[in-house]
């Protein structure tokens, strides 16, 4: 199980940092704006993917990524995590846009 607060995400697991595919962490975005509050970090095949979590104030929903792909919106960050623990998340390499991988979120990684 994982819990989120404004500043951190933590897990009940005693081995918080796991190097398994699907390990994830939600951290504050370096942008620190209302529209880009968090980043979802996902480990897959020894690579870390950083996925923007956007907030659309008009509709009061959270969205993943740049907005170019996918239209799923969520009422909370917890809903994003719950959804992608059951449904594979599309991972796009920022350096190789043609590279497409998918994985489910499996383990919460620890503190931000």
What's the quick description here?
With 112 residues, the protein is mainly beta. The protein has one helix and ten strands, in the order βββββββαβββ. The chain has a single domain, classed as SHC Adaptor Protein (2-Layer Sandwich).
Helix content: under 10%
* CATH homologous superfamily identity: SH2 domain
Task: Please report the number of helical segments.
Answer: 1
Task: Report strand %.
Answer: 35-45%
Largest sheet, in brief, is: 6 strands, mixed
Could you name the CATH topology? SHC Adaptor Protein
Q: Supply Rg.
A: 13 Å
Structure in words:
By secondary structure, the chain is mainly beta. It has one domain (2-108): SHC Adaptor Protein (2-Layer Sandwich). Helices cover 9% and strands 40% of the residues. The chain has one helix and ten strands. The protein has one helix spanning 77-86, and strands at residues 2-4, 9-11, 23-28, 38-44, 47-56, 61-64, 73-74, 89-92, 100-103, 107-108. It has a six-stranded mixed β-sheet with strand order 7-6-5-4-3-10. Strands 1-2 form a two-stranded antiparallel sheet. β8 and β9 (100-103) form a beta hairpin. The longest helix is centred in the C-terminal third of the chain and has 10 residues, at 77-86. The protein starts with a strand and ends with a strand. The model is unreliable at 1-14 (pLDDT under 50). It comes from Chelydra serpentina. InterPro entries: Immunoreceptor_sig_adapters (IPR051751), SH2 (IPR000980), SH2_dom_sf (IPR036860).
